[in-house]
Design a protein that fits this description.
By secondary structure, the protein is an all-alpha fold. The protein has one domain. It has eight helices and no strands.
């Protein structure tokens, strides 16, 4: 089974790092919600609230990015160039896991903060926008922790408009998650 992760061995911690950053936002959200220390949103936000919101804005796209692990089966990228059955099982499962976590994290955030149907749509849009911006940046090699290195962030950011396929992917992700959240609201009644 090591062949499945052959290309991920070149990254620090291999696939375990990808999975860690996928689960991190939802685990942190659940811990903060459990201890009732989620950031307030609105006029009375303080520096601590802004820092926690910034954490979610930076790290939440990792959950949606994981949906694209299936790309290693489709591209010759040194990760799974000669896929076998286990490669398909693993990468499709990881992509599905990323989709489910991104969707569930969105539901948790929207359910927690929204007090009306209008607010639900607003939070769904901004969360979808966050995913739609973050995933293409991740595909260009920018990780959430790279935001500390502003020169790398700038180099990657200026390349997005030069790549129309990434701009199209960004729009597709925004629309996909926004419509998905609207459909979930339609068929699964929100808790208010």
């Amino acid at each position: 089974m090591p062949i499945i992760f052959q290309g991920h061995l070149i990254f620090p911690w291999g696939m375990s790092w990808d999975l860690t950053v996928t689960f991190l936002p939802i685990i942190i959200f659940l811990i903060l919600r459990r201890f009732k220390i989620l950031p307030k949103i609105g006029w009375k936000m303080n520096l601590w609230d802004y820092s926690r919101v910034l954490f979610f804005v930076i790290w939440a796209p990792n959950t949606a990015y994981e949906m694209f692990e299936v790309r290693h089966l489709l591209l010759i990228d040194g990760v799974s160039d000669n896929p076998d059955v286990w490669s398909y099982v693993v990468f499709v499962s990881i992509s599905l896991l990323g989709f489910l976590i991104a969707t569930h994290l969105g539901r948790l955030i929207i359910d927690y903060y929204s007090a009306s149907p209008k607010e639900r749509k607003l939070y769904a849009f901004f969360l979808s926008l966050d995913y739609g911006i973050g995933v293409p940046l991740g595909l260009l090699g920018l990780n959430s922790y790279d935001l500390i290195n502003l020169s790398k962030f700038y180099d990657v950011l200026i390349n997005v408009p030069a790549r129309p396929e990434l701009m199209a992917l960004s729009v597709i992700i925004i629309l996909f998650f926004f419509v998905l959240q609207l459909l979930l609201d339609r068929f699964y009644k929100p808790p208010f």
